[in-house]
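Researcher: Here's my situation. A collaborator sent me these components and asked whether they could plausibly form a single complex. I don't have experimental data yet, so a predicted model of the whole assembly would be a useful starting point for our discussion.
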Amino acid sequence: MLMFGSHRLGYASPMRLLLIEDDIAAADYLRQGLTEAGHTVDAAHDGETGLQLALATDYDVLLIDRMLPRRDGLAIVRMLRADGRATPVLLISALGQVDQRVEGLRAGGDDYLVKPYAFSELLARVEALARRAQPVEAAAPGVLQVADLELDLERRRVTRAGQLIRLQPRELRLLEYLMRRAGRVVTRTMLLEQVWDLHFDPQTNVVDSQISRLRAKIDRDFDAPLLHTLRGVGYRLGDEV
Amino acid sequence: MFARLRQLLRTSAMRLALRYAILQTLLLAVALVGLLAFANRYVAAQLEAGLASEAGALAALPTDTLAQRLDTLADTPGARHYLLLDAQGRRLAGDLVAWPDGLAANGRAARVRAHVVEHDEPGHSERLDLVARGSVLAGGARLAVAQEPGASEDLREAVFAAAGLVLALAAALSLGFGFALGRRWLARIDAINRTAGAIAGGDLTQRVAAHGQGDEFDLLAGHLNHMLERIEAAVAGMRAVSDNVAHDLRRPLARLKTRVEVLLEHPRAADDYRVALQQTVADADELMRTFDALLSIARLEAGGEILAPQPFDLAALARDVAELYAAEAEDAGRPFHIELGDAVQATGDARLVAQALANLLDNAFHYTASDVPVAVRLTRDGDRARLAIVDHGAGLSDADKTRLVARFARGDAARSRPGSGLGLALAAAVARAHGGALELRDTPGGGLDAGLVLPLFSRA
């Protein structure tokens, strides 16, 4: 189902990541996976060391476990935010209830991933958080553009190559989410959470079907496909293959 | 037996009865003392009237006749006592030795102590407590008439005896009543204690017997039994969780382990490893899903009701979730009907309800052939809404319906197929946490009609 190493996940430019995780074996696997995906990974095994590293170096994304020795994960995020650091933070935790997620995001986390997770899911979320190389081109204020696909946020209007495309409200939200992360992989779970506000894993292919519908509207009548499926991993919107 | 008596004496009923007995005895004693005083005064008045009447009769006699008469009377046993003094204070007649101290000759009765000459031995006298009346006769002579207050003493004694009897009887009755009441209370408390003991010993099926009188003990028994039911259900839920964790997680774990072990038995081609590892990851995903579902159900069952419920539009929520599934139905060529109607306000945790609905839809899509029609239907019935997923598949047997809505159960048909099959149990747990229920019915013409029955939002 999952294709480790069979293809590189979407993000082109390598990132510098800090992983703060006290489970050393898990941290090693994670570091290996992230390194193989082309990123540079520093690891800390306790909260205090992690905080010092995060303050000393300019990382692209921080991966922080919630329950850490010597300094709690949420406390690290709060201190970084209080210090004016806006580095994106992916919180990782075994505490997965809705209120616990809300707590994590309120503390300043940018995303919240519940253990156990699929590595591809983690990688996709880390890459989605990267601030660098914003692939969305703004054709005009309030307009998202990917290749010849344009989404006017104010008028809720989609055109491709100047041709009007009619979308349902939910399809519009799905497209907006994909366009804001153009060039990067988004997973089924990310879409379910962000577009449908569902925090669980349906056993049917509902997301695939929604994507097919959207694809039929934005890609079918055009030569270059924009919406790509990465089997077993997720989807990516963009014109590069 | 002795210990039992001490226990009885320590009961609040017995203490109450004792206090009542003491109070009652005191009140009764006060009443009796009052009665006694009244009787005393009555007797004294009678006595004084008698003295006055005789003194009057005697005063009417001439002095010498009076002296003779007094001597006669003085010799009569049991009669009153007398003394006649002349104007100079000389003793003329009577059996009183001298004019009693403290007795005025003014016609008023007084209690005095005086010496009286004995009948048998005229040389001797005895001191007696008397009620006396002194008066002045014509010519300055003084007459004293006295009487022993014996009759009044008898009466006082009789009243005392009666009062004592009444007091003793009342005290005994109070104590007896308290004793009986205490025993009764103790018996009922004992019954509760026995139940508590049995439960502490691990037998959670025990219940406190109610007497059906609707008194405070029955009320207490009712509350205790309700509490015990909750505890028993929670414990049963916990047992079911561990049983299911064992059952639902052990099998896939065993499968996973066996696959890896067989794989490692001999050297294999790289592709074989890849396929096996992919399958292993899929198995692990399945394990996680099952684990998550079990955990969610356990949390819902243990948590009781939803914390901080928010009102939400059930129809809009159902439309969102249904539309998510509509695309897949269309892809599979499955007829899919969304019949929701107008807004319906429910209250609770919208995310959980969405998840329950998605679970039911997952179930319908997963366990029926891809061309079987499925409908999402929202109806209102009084103060409840019923959000149903209606399919026209194979349906469920009645036994399975009952088992599936119970905590952590699975239909046998579900066991043989992939998927955690915990969807219905999770939906039922969500419905219960919202004060509703998951209702499983037969679709007319065959199939399953799974309805989330939820209470409507009311501002009350």
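Model: Some features of this prediction you could bring to your collaborator: Chain B has eleven helices and twelve strands. The two ends of chain B are 57 Å apart (CA to CA).
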